[in-house]
Amino acid sequence: MSPQRKLLLLGTFVHSKTQQSLDIFHNAGIAVDADGKIAAVERDVPDLSEAKARLLTKLGWDEAEVDVTQAADGQFFFPGFIDTHIHAAQYANAGLFGKSSLLDWLETYTFPLEASLSDLSRARRVYARCIRRTLSHGTTTAAYFATLDVAATNLLADLCLSMGQRAFVGRVCMDRTEMNPAYYRDASTEASLEATRQTVEHVRRIDPGFDVVSPILTPRFAPSCTREVMAGLAQMHRETGLPIQTHLSENPGEIRLVAQLFPESSSYTDVYHRLGLLTPRTVLAHAVHLSEEEAEVIAREGAKVSHCPCSNTSLTSGAARVRWLWDKGIDVGLGTDVSGGYSHSILEAARQAAMVSRHVAMNIEIPRDDDDDAAAAEEKTKEKERVKLTVEEVLYLATRGGAKCVGLEEKVGGFEVGMEWDAQLVGLSHVHDDGELHHDGGGDGDDHGFVDVFGWESWGERVAKWLYNGDDRNTKRVWVKGRLVHRRR
Ligand code: GUN
Ligand code: FE
Fold first, then answer.
1. CA-closest residue to ligand 1 atom 8
2. CA-closest candidate to residue 11, choices 54, 56, 57, 42
3. How far is the C-alpha of 169 from the C-alpha of 365, rounded, in Å?
4. How far is the CA of 96 from the centre of ligand 2 (A)?
5. Residue 338 forms beta bridges with which residues?
6. Which CATH fold would you assign to the domain 6-79+413-487?
7. What are the start-end ranges of the H helices in 179-251?
8. Coiled-coil annotation: which residues (predicted)?
9. Nearest ligand to the CA atom of 102
10. Cis before residue 317, ω within 30 degrees of 0?
11. Which side of the chain, N or C, has fewer Cβ within a 10 Å radius?
12. Is the ipTM of this complex over 0.90?
């Protein structure tokens, strides 16, 4: 790749300060070096030209060697989103799930589609479109499940690298003869492990430092896998430190199946625990129906949870309890889980996380007034309030929380010096490409203006409106590691 130009970003910046709070700073500038790293941050300066001058002086950079992007009024820079669980192959099925639930959905919709992507021209069409669309919605990092097919999985890695999306690419392991369809399963345990090694080696060739694209070890879920393949992948993790991703405790039928298939285990989580798959580099998708003990094991081993609210509702899997997972000390990120989830947008996942937490709240029953246990009623009322997730919390899940899930919290998810410039420029008002702000009442066109309709909102309120009303029309530009990877026309 040719060396990149240095960048100066000027304007308003918003990122998570803590799990509960956003840091919003104005009249600010960020300088990004030719490696895509944040070299300096200047905040709360009198104006943008001063921010620019200070950055250039501080770093000894010449104005001629930098590209400057200045956010217009009503625009702000926000960290790129992190999708901690998405099936790239299933992008072609987004929206197709009917009334199915997990196990019949896999058989009816999912396995036939995934098997068909061993045709590389089909795979290329689906994967390129998936990457392009997720980038245009601000997803700068994605943890992908591909398919069984090595060549198609390697192609997904090639496309992520060339299109500039940071990605974890997993070749899916499914070696259990009786549980997978004959047309879509590994020939043997050894073949499954060998195919995984081939993808690892391919990614090592195209991105030797796993700088942008990394392999990820991917046992599909316990019912698809033998003990031997799961133990083999755990061994590979111990030898290489590579991350792991799988599904856990998504649906009651699935949980019963796991209990039948693994009678030696005390729970679904225990299956992975015994086989060495619970590690600080493991991402467990769903984790809807965990017991207290299971959550404690996950917390103790430092494994992470990918919360997939859109999928969990679409397939009627259940409502995962993010507050409860957090209370147990488990790190949580967001996953679209396309196409269990119909939307490929992490902004959508964030708002669905907020909505699902309200469903969890509504399911907490408060003893009626005429019951004599007033203290219990008060306790439940407090709990009901507490389980609801705020705007700040779901945006944390979408950025820093996701980064922690995939082991990238030192690199992406916020705007500190030394982190990499994975970011999006968000425009909320009627800003046209010429940078002019148009208060013409016509903002419901392509610019999707819904904020400065009134003009009196605080910045916190603007961000809330973006969360609940925004979409890709608001995502004006997207960068990964300092490279511009999407620009809205
Ligand atoms: N469990 C096993 N495979 C899958 C999958 O493709 N999607 C979801 N949501 N759950 C799974
Ligand atoms: Fe999934």
1. 340
2. 42
3. 42
4. 15
5. 341
6. Urease, subunit C; domain 1 (2.30.40)
7. 189-206, 227-240
8. none
9. 1
10. no
11. C
12. yes
